[in-house]
Amino acid sequence: MKQSDQAILKEIKRKIARDADLQETAIWTQKDFDFLSYYIEEKTACRLSVSTLKRIWSNDHQRLPHIATLDALSKTAFDKNWQRLKSASLSNQVEKEENTFKRTFIGRERKFRKALIALLLIIPMVFILIGGAKAFQKKQNGKETMANVTFGHEKTLENKLPNTVVFNYDIEEINADSFFLQQSWDTFRKVEIFKGVKQRTDIYYVPGYFTAKLFADDKIIKEMPVHIIYEDWFMAARQPMSNIVTFDKNLWLSEDYLGIATETLQSKGIDINKEFQLAYYYVKDFGVDGDNLKYKASFQMEPLESVDCPMANFHLQGTKGYYWIMIGNKGCGSEVYIRTGDTLHNGKTQDLTKLTTNIYQWNELEIHTSNKNVQLVLNGTAVFSTSYQATIGKIMEISYFFNGPGMIDNVKLTNEQGEIKFLDDLKNHNDPVK
């Protein structure tokens, strides 16, 4: 491995550890590496195994990790892929060397400095004015050019999955080395696009309220919401995160709650002895203001030999922000974190142990929000309060994510006036109140 590569990788690791509040690398435990794996996945949607992270942080490598691993680490630390970060670092090094070279001659040139300053002072002001005018014009032209970028989409199906979406765009007036379209938060769904072509189609395999992005190099130049609605509950699993497996309704458990058998997971190729994600979605415009609502749901998980800390994640997605509430099993409070709008609480740096319970029995979580003030109620007891500033917007998606076999029941969502906007007791999977 080149020495310059080693230095860049070292700086990446240092910044990730600092940003994740993981200091004292030498005394990290298994839980710290588990958290680091989850932290990187949340940042990049790329899951790096604990064994890989241990190898990288222990410097147990004679050559660079795989480029996909380097990209995930680079994006987590500096929001750039490895090659672009490396190029930027090399450019900085060249600049430093040039500055060092210049400093060696400063002493020799001091006697000419006064003459140089005098020369600069007699440069006609007209050139300065012309230069300023050109810079201003260039800036204004840049704004106009960016305004001329178009970005739109059309769904080919209504309330059905999978759903091919046609993206229409015009990037002809933008100068960049490369362009990309990313259909959601999932960086695995990021594809390169080119000038001279004004359409790109992509498939959505799961429902949700997504934000599609148009990139020029590493800069986002346009964003737009893409609301993929489904007519019922939808169930899917990921293993790894780039691979989506879906389950038809006839594969669900025939119970008065929503769940799936481990045998069914295995029959669809999910290895229950390795990390996987199980998700349930209900996606539509619920007609509820995210800053003023009441929500509740019951949940339970089944134990798996491969899952030390089972976690249930509750996601309410709005047009502007979202709730992400994590409930862990007893003893796993360090792994818990909460996101409400623009406010984040991390179990690594804050005591969130009250958001743990015996997750192998039925529990009930409630979210009460009034004017951006949030209270979490677990099994009838208020366990946490917080607030946020930026609005959530209208609720467009309710979803659940488990790191093992999870089940949900008795989902209810009401607005500020107490009107029920969604209610499903999942008795024999009857239609919910819509």
Structure description:
There is one protein chain. The chain is of the alpha+beta class. It folds into three domains: 1-122, no CATH class; 151-228, Immunoglobulin-like (Sandwich); 234-429, Sandwich (Jelly Rolls), CATH 2.60.120.200. The protein has nine helices and 22 strands. The strands form four sheets. Strands 8, 9, 10, 12, 13, 14, 15, 16 and 20 form a nine-stranded mixed β-sheet that branches. Strand 17 and strand 18 (373-378) form a beta hairpin. Helix 1 (3-19) packs across helix 4 and helix 2 (30-44) crosses helix 4 (67-78). The longest helix has 23 residues, at 82-104. It is globular, with a radius of gyration of 26 Å. It starts with a helix and ends in a 10-residue tail after the last strand.
In short:
By secondary structure, the protein is an alpha+beta fold. It has helices at residues 3-19, 30-44, 50-57, 67-78, 82-104, 106-109, 113-121, 125-147, 262-267; strands spanning 150-155, 163-170, 179-182, 190-193, 199-204, 208-216, 219-228, 234-238, 244-247, 277-283, 293-301, 311-318, 322-329, 337-340, 343-346, 356-357, 363-370, 373-378, 381-387, 395-402, 406-414, 420-424. Helix content is 27%, strand content 32%.
